[in-house]
Amino acid sequence: MPTTVQAVYAGGVLRPLQPLALREGETVEVTVAQTAPPAPNAAQTVEERFRRLAAAWERDVAYHSSTTVRNSRPAYREIIDLGPAVIPLLLRDLETNHTHWFSALREITGANPIPESAAGNIPRMVEAWLRWAREHSYQW
Fold this sequence. Notes:
The structure is a single chain. The chain is mostly helical. It has one domain (37-135). 45% of the residues lie in helices and 6% in strands. The protein has helices at 46-61, 67-72, 74-81, 87-97, 102-109, 122-135; strands at residues 7-10, 13-16. The protein has a two-stranded antiparallel ribbon. Strand 1 (7-10) and strand 2 form a beta hairpin. Helix 1 packs antiparallel against helix 3 and helix 3 (74-81) packs parallel to helix 5. The longest helix is centred in the middle third of the chain and has 16 residues, at 46-61. It is elongated, with a radius of gyration of 18 Å. 14% of the residues are buried.
C-alpha cells in the first residue's frame, strides 16, 4: 500500500522524518517531489528556534559518533545559519551540557581557540571556548 512521507536529503542520504513500516533490507520504489521548507515563524525568537533545532539535532544524531555525520545534519546547519545571535545560546549549552557545538562556533566566529594538545579532550575543548568567549566579552 503506497505511503507518502516527508524526508530530508542530507549528506547523500534521503532520511524519512518518521518511522516506516518496512523490514530491514526491504526494497522500495521512491518518487521524489520537492516541497518548500516551512516558513519560519516570524514571532519565534532566536532562542526558541535554537531550542527546537537543537532538540531535533540531538534526536537525529543520538546514535552517531561521526563528527561529519553530526555536523552535516540539516538542524545543525540551520543553527549555524542563525549567525552571531545564537553564540550565547551555544556557549550556555556548551558550558552546561558539554554539547558538541565546537564546529558551529568555529564556523560562526571564524575562531578556533582549541589548542592542538586539547583536541579530543571535551572538558578542555569546552574550557578553551569559554575562555575565548570571556576574552571577547560574550555573555551567556
